[in-house]
Amino acid sequence: ACAVFQLVGFPDWHIVHNMHHRYSDEVENDPHPTQGLTFWQFLNSFKTTIGQTLRRNYFERHGENEKTRKTWAQLSYVLPVNQLLKALFWFLVLGPVVFSFFFVATIVNKNLLYADFNYSTHASDDDTVEIKNLDNNLFYRIVNKTCFGLYFHKNHHLNPNLFDPRKYVAAEDRVIPSYQDAAE
Fold it and tell me: How confident is the model at residue 96 (pLDDT cuts 50, 70, 90)?
C-alpha cells in the first residue's frame, strides 16, 4: 500500500536499498552517493543517479546484448507509465482537490525527506563520508520519534533488519549473561 501510494513498487525500493547498503558511498555503485554535492545538487540528481546505477548493474549482471538492451529499453518506458497509472489511480480515488493538496504534497515531502536523511546522514564537509546518527535538534528528534528512528542511519547500516534503529545495541555493549549467571 505504501509503495502504491509513493508511486514506486516494493521491488524497486528493495533493489535500490540493498545496492545502497552493499556499495554505501562508493560513487560509482551507490545509487545515491553524496560526495562532492550540495544538498540541492543531490536532490536534483538522485533519481538520475539511481537510474544510471540500476542500468549499469543490470548490464553487469545480465550482459549487454541485443536482448538485454531491448529489455532495458522496454523497462525505460514501462516504469514511468506504471508511475503515471499509479498517480491516475490516486487521482480517481481521492478526487482532484484532495489529490492536488494532499497527495502531491506528500510526494514532494517524501522526496525532500528521503533526500535530506540520506544527504544529512552520509555527507561530510570535506568530501569524506561518515554514516551518522542524527538526533541533535528538534527536527531530528520529532522525525525520529514519528518515523521510527529514520535519522539513526548509522545504526540502520549496522543492522538493516532492525525495525527501529534507535534500539540498536552494539555487540560489545550487549550484556550477555554468563553460564554461571544462567544457572543461578
Answer: very high
